[in-house]
Every structure is written in structure tokens, then in C-alpha cells.
Amino acid sequence: MQISICYGEAINSILFQSKSYDGLVIGRSKKFGGTGGRMETFCIDSSVEQLSSINVTFGDYNGQVAIISLCFYTNLKKIYGPFGTILGASSVSIPIEDGVIVGFHGRGGTYLTAIGIFVAPKVNNLPSSEKKFNSLHSIQDPDYAPTQLEVNFYLFFFYHIQLVNQNSHAHFFSHKIVT
């Protein structure tokens, strides 16, 4: 998985590219959020390392409710980030047990205002008949992106974090949806 984040004092945007367990590109996201900021990209070799947790810091930024920092943690105890500013804001951490983060979705204008994560079961937790499908098929077209139906078929849940501005204060809500 390759993750690119544009940020300054807040998160401007995020985009990602994911690969199957056999190394083939299976999805590229659109850019969620706005333009601007400094871009940093990091890669995770999914054959040995998986994202196990994400920390989201949010608050009011330039009169907007926004995600102001992101930090990613892996099963190998590596930390990517924090990207953005973490001072003076609220945060939420989403640890993932019995699964791995395989993708993101989001929303935003100038800054990223909502982020969600797609989580798939760990391959070693699947029955052998499902392990083959979990890598989505061997796709030769590098521009192929799975449809929502295909993604939901092999993913068993996703989290969504959205920021809500109430009385000029940032609040969040999060929910887990089982598919």
C-alpha cells in the first residue's frame, strides 16, 4: 500500500494505492480533500507489514472543522507521521483487531473533513477457500480499480469518521459498518 498525504498545519488531502497479496495494483483512490500543502508518500510492504491503527486529530482550523493530523501505526511497531499539527486538538485512535486496513475514503473541501478506512480480515484468519478471493483476482490492467460491489464483497467492515461543527467546536462521530 502506498499512501500520499498533503499537509501543512492541517491535512489538505490523502490518496492511496493498494496492491493484492501477490503484488498487483488493485486500486487507486481519487484524491480526498483539497490542494496545497507539502506532500509526503510512504509505502507499506503488505507481505510483511500491515496498518494496524490510525490516529486522527481534528479541530477548528481557519474557521473550518478539519482533520489536522493523521498518524499511522503498523503491526511491526512502525509509526508513519504524525502528518499535520497535533497541538490543541481532540483525537481519536482506531485500533484494528483481527483485520488489516486496506484502503481509505474521505471527503473535504480545502481541507480533509472526513476519513474512513476499509478493513479486510487477515488472510491467516480466513478459510482457505476465501484466501484466494481476498487478493481480488490476478488483474493484469494496472489502471483497474475494483468496483464498490467487489470491494464490499471481500471487505467485512469499514469505519467512517466525520467531523461535525457544533457551536464552533469540533466533534466527531465514528461508526463501524459490517458488510
Automatic annotation (TrEMBL):
Keyword presence, Nuclease: no
What does the UniProt keyword field contain?
A: Lectin, Repeat
Boundaries of every Jacalin-type lectin domain copy? 1-121
Name the Gene3D superfamilies on file. Answer: Jacalin-like lectin domain
- Residues crossing the lipid bilayer are none
Write down the InterPro entries for this protein, in alphabetical order.
Jacalin-like_lectin_dom, Jacalin-like_lectin_dom_plant, Jacalin-like_lectin_dom_sf
Question: Would the keyword Nucleotide-binding be found if you checked this record's keyword annotation?
Answer: no
| One Pfam family of this chain | Jacalin
Task: State the SMART domains in the record.
Answer: Jacalin
Molecular function via GO: carbohydrate binding
Family per record: Belongs to the jacalin lectin family.
UniProt-recorded name of the protein = Jacalin-type lectin domain-containing protein
Organism whose genome encodes this protein:
Rhododendron griersonianum
